[in-house]
Specification:
alpha/beta; four-stranded antiparallel beta sheet; 10 helices; globular; binds S-adenosylmethionine
Length: about 260
């Protein structure tokens, strides 16, 4: 089967609310653009060592990056000395990740795997799973979120942790579409803007300086809902950080990071 190069939506894109849609969104054309959206140096600077420190504090050594994308975190973790397996459901993103790794002198150990059937395709268990860059938002059905968290839980060692981040959708939903906040990524001249927001869909447009525009249909996860799903999947302790700081210190962050401990 040949892969389509450009994104594909049904006639009315706002009605496209299916978990499998990411396969039509992370196509080669968008994968090529993604690294402009998230300039690696700028991103490394703004994140600092947050994830690396958290993994070290938990004594993690073997890491599964389930949302590898173009490889930013996999490469960072390899360079920080962790053993990393890089998984993703999109072959276009994984291929770009592999090339990005090679450019930096690494051979990424990649596996194409959809989270809903993770343990079927990824053998073994891990000290930590990372699911970063607002990826969990791609699951549209609650059953898929629950199944995915159960798959993540099963792929962790007994004292393993899951680190999962998400955009602050509460603000977007509560302050309404009128608050049309523009999100500037670290990449040069790339603007992400909501095209449509309701309780079941956040459709964002990503405009690039060459005039091209891509979109992503995402499910707007409320912070406490994500925390509850994690607890209900069996995680014993869920700590949530706001823009890399503990939540009480930040009023309206752009991102939340959940660290869920299995035991
Ligand atoms: N973590 C990377 C980053 O921060 O740059 C990539 C983030 S990108 C927003 C989301 C990634 O999740 C995409 O590469 C997409 O293919 C992957 N993804 C979305 N839904 C998935 C699923 N059900 N199973 C596996 N991968 C999925």
């Amino acid at each position: 089967m040949t892969q389509q190069k450009e994104q594909h939506y049904a006639e009315d894109p706002v009605q496209v609310r299916e978990t499998g849609q990411y396969q039509n969104e992370y196509v080669p054309g968008f994968a090529e653009k993604w690294d402009q959206l998230i300039d690696w140096d700028g991103r490394a600077k703004s994140e600092g060592d947050f994830f690396i420190q958290t993994l070290r504090e938990h004594g993690a050594q073997n890491i599964l990056d389930v949302a590898t994308g173009t490889g930013f975190h996999s490469v960072r973790m390899i360079e920080a000395g962790f053993n990393v397996i890089s998984a993703d459901g999109s072959p276009a993103m994984l291929a770009t990740a592999f090339e990005n790794g090679k450019k930096r002198g690494h051979i990424l150990r990649t596996i194409q795997a959809d989270w809903r059937w993770l343990n079927r395709d990824v053998p073994g268990t891990f000290d930590a799973i990372i699911c970063l860059g607002n990826s969990f938002t791609h699951l549209f059905e609650e059953q898929d979120r629950r199944k995915t968290l159960a798959e993540f839980y099963a792929a962790l060692n007994h004292d393993g942790i899951l680190i999962l981040d998400q955009r602050n959708y509460d603000q977007l939903l509560d302050e309404g579409f009128s608050c049309k906040h523009k999100f500037y990524y670290c990449g040069e001249d790339v603007v992400a803007e909501p095209d449509h927001v309701d309780e079941g869909l956040a459709r964002f447009g990503y405009s690039f300086k060459d005039g091209s525009k891509y979109t992503l249909n995402m499910f707007p996860l409320r912070k406490d809902y994500t925390r509850r799903l994690m607890a209900e999947a069996g995680f014993q302790k869920v700590t949530t950080y706001a823009d890399f700081e503990e939540t009480h210190r930040q009023e309206s962050p752009d991102f939340y990071i959940h660290v869920a401990a299995k035991n």
